[in-house]
Amino acid sequence: MPNLPFDAAGGDQCFEDFVPGSVRTSGTVLVTEEEIIEFARRYDPQVFHTDPVAARKTVYGGLVASGWHTAAMAMRLIVQNYLSHVASVGSPGVDEVRWLKPVRPGDRLSVRVTVLEARRSESKPDRGLVRSLVEVLNQDGVVVMSFKGVNIVLCRNH
Amino acid sequence: MPNLPFDAAGGDQCFEDFVPGSVRTSGTVLVTEEEIIEFARRYDPQVFHTDPVAARKTVYGGLVASGWHTAAMAMRLIVQNYLSHVASVGSPGVDEVRWLKPVRPGDRLSVRVTVLEARRSESKPDRGLVRSLVEVLNQDGVVVMSFKGVNIVLCRNH
Predict the structure, then answer these.
(1) Which residue of B has its CA nearest to A77?
(2) Rounded CA separation A9/B114 (Å)
(3) A51, A52, B78, B122: least buried by Cβ within 10 Å?
(4) Rounded CA gap, A50 and A66, in Å?
(5) pLDDT category, B84, cuts 50, 70, 90?
(6) Nearest Cα to B63, choosing from B53, B75, B78?
(7) Tell me, what's the ipTM?
């Protein structure tokens, strides 16, 4: 399957455009110490997310981003580049969320989305379910987080 | 099993204190329109999360919180009340994340955590895995989100 840049995906795409096996990759987002701390103070105030000095004495050996923060940064890339702006209705959930490697200040994250399954809804024929594997990569190409997401996407001429 | 208030949990608890079947409930957090929009502009800029007027024309009929924002608000309650401050090492991931009902401005969310399983690590005998069902409830007692989390927790006298 073609490896589509993200800016060729999303936008005005509809259910029919999400072909199983296709892979889309995004641009990058820079992870900053300031943003790691700001997010964590508000939502995940554990010392290895909020205090660069105290974090050195933890198993992480330094400040790491909250896993929920990594998910949020990935979501920004997904919304900007992958989700349809005209046909995406929302998501009932995600599965198998895995935080595989620490995300640290200075990392540059990108997202790779692989369409796993596209299934027309039986109860609502104007839409379908798109199941995708989302992988978050750092600047070394290492997958730091992954999850499987489900999106509800309207069909063309819905 | 006793229904422990959150302030009786967390704190200095260790692996041995997470007993399968026990249930812990938290205090509440108020969801504001301002915070919904602020989070979504940064991490999930879809119109039903960022624009109260345009959101009325969507399937949600008004502004709703990003699912990742709901997860982050729940995490704050979990960290403040449930996770051990001395023995919690982190989480390899979560499963079966479900966004079940819309979360709207003015909602008051709380968290109910049920310990599903506590298993001593075979490779690292100083710690164990605690698997929990996390349910996020609104002011009407309706479960708006749920997921199953795994936490690595050090044993007493680790």
Answers:
(1) B43
(2) 40
(3) B122
(4) 9
(5) confident
(6) B53
(7) 0.91
